From TrEMBL:
Its EC number is 2.1.1.364. Keywords: Chromatin regulator, Metal-binding, Methyltransferase, Nucleus, Phosphoprotein, Repeat, S-adenosyl-L-methionine, Transcription, Transcription regulation, Transferase, Zinc, Zinc-finger. It holds the Pfam family FYRN. InterPro entries: FYrich_C, FYrich_N, Post-SET_dom, SET_dom, SET_dom_sf. GO terms for cellular component: MLL3/4 complex. The lineage of its organism: Eukaryota, Metazoa, Chordata, Craniata, Vertebrata. GO terms for molecular function: histone H3K4 monomethyltransferase activity; transcription coactivator activity; zinc ion binding. It catalyses: L-lysyl(4)-[histone H3] + S-adenosyl-L-methionine = N(6)-methyl-L-lysyl(4)-[histone H3] + S-adenosyl-L-homocysteine + H(+). This is [histone H3]-lysine(4) N-methyltransferase.
Length: 347
């Protein structure tokens, strides 16, 4: 491990990152740089693949992030000087930054990888993230990609399927896309205004929950502390898109064999959490829920917020009622929540 870290960064083998940066051939053009870390005879090898339209890919390697990026920065600086554009000073640019190792989100994930405790020269910024402490999914064949895509695969309110799952409130579908619409619940206002509760939730949500294997289905979200009733726990975040865009994105995700997570905000808009979503998409269904999904109107627009509907103890799995429409027997989705009042079927 000694060679695979420095005082400022950890270099995990298999790391991949993409960056758009100035071209080495034209002073006023940009191109794509694919950065990766490989292992060569027990030492890290830093690789940058230069992808520029109209040219063959160029592969550069180096023994350090700075070493390989210096091969790029120097010709970039020369081309920009020749074209009279703003000068570039490579001496002030760090290879770790250009590889993305120092990006906050990347650092949090890397510091949660198994075995990072052996990086004795590295100065930790955050420490192990409890959201990353979860066992790996078990695939009978040994490979997730080789597993058959069953009809009952991850039947969440955000998972799209050809069954056209919709909410009991809206009675609407996006083509073949089944999504859940946030029910029009009213957030209690006994203690504070809705904007204040929302700002407080945004500041504290990471300390409210952690991700782990679920007894209900796949991964689930658990309470990291005791949560009082009528508390905003977290926001269901993602990219806000129109119905027409949701149709196209659903087809693209299906072609890539992705699990799809979408949540209808209103009759015209859908929150797509498939790529840019947060942990809230992992909250499972239960017939005896401890949370509800609420549409909250704020100055910056409507938000989907997961709030507790009763007191929740630390270590208890968070869940809410998906409220799927009733379907015929051919499209029934079994419920595994295990509640005393379980309806046996989710739709």
């Amino acid at each position: 491990m000694a060679a695979f870290h420095s005082a400022n960064a950890i270099f995990p083998v298999g790391y991949r990152a993409s960056r758009i940066y100035w071209s080495t051939r034209h002073g006023n053009h940009r191109c794509r740089y694919l950065c990766s870390v490989e292992e060569n005879e027990g030492q890290p090898e830093f690789v940058v693949r230069v992808i520029e339209q109209g040219y063959d890919d160029l592969v550069l390697t180096g023994a350090s992030p700075k070493g390989v990026w210096d091969k790029i920065l120097e010709p970039v600086a020369d081309r920009r000087n020749e074209s009279g554009t703003l000068k570039l000073f490579p001496v002030y640019l760090k290879g770790e930054d250009l590889f993305g190792f120092t990006v906050t989100a990347v650092t949090r994930i890397v510091e949660s990888l198994p075995g990072v405790e052996a990086c004795d020269r590295y100065t930790f910024r955050f420490g192990r993230n409890p959201l990353m402490e979860l066992p790996l999914a078990i695939n009978p064949s040994g490979s997730a990609r080789s597993e058959p895509k069953a009809c009952s695969h991850v039947k969440r309110p955000h998972t799209l399927s050809s069954t056209g799952i919709v909410s009991s409130k809206s009675m609407q579908t996006i083509g073949s896309v089944g999504v859940v619409e946030a029910p029009e619940e009213v957030i209690p206002k006994q203690f504070a205004s809705v904007p204040f509760q929302y700002r407080r939730m945004k500041a504290e949500w990471k300390s409210n929950v952690y991700l782990a294997r679920s007894r209900i289905q796949g991964l689930g979200l658990y309470a990291a502390r005791d949560i009082e009733s009528h508390t905003m726990v977290m926001e269901y975040i993602g990219t806000l898109i129109r119905n027409e865009v949701a149709n196209r994105m659903e087809k693209m995700y299906e072609s890539q064999n992705r699990g799809v997570y979408m949540f209808r905000l209103d009759s015209e808009h859908v929150v797509d959490a498939t790529i840019t979503g947060g942990p809230a998409r992992y909250i499972n269904h239960s017939c005896a829920p401890n949370c509800i999904a609420e549409a909250v109107s704020l100055e910056r627009g409507d938000k989907i917020v997961i709030s507790s509907c009763r007191n929740i103890q630390r270590g208890e799995e968070l869940c809410y009622d998906y409220k799927f429409d009733l379907e015929d027997d051919q499209h029934k989705i079994p419920c595994h929540c295990g509640a005393v009042n379980c309806r046996k079927w989710m739709n």
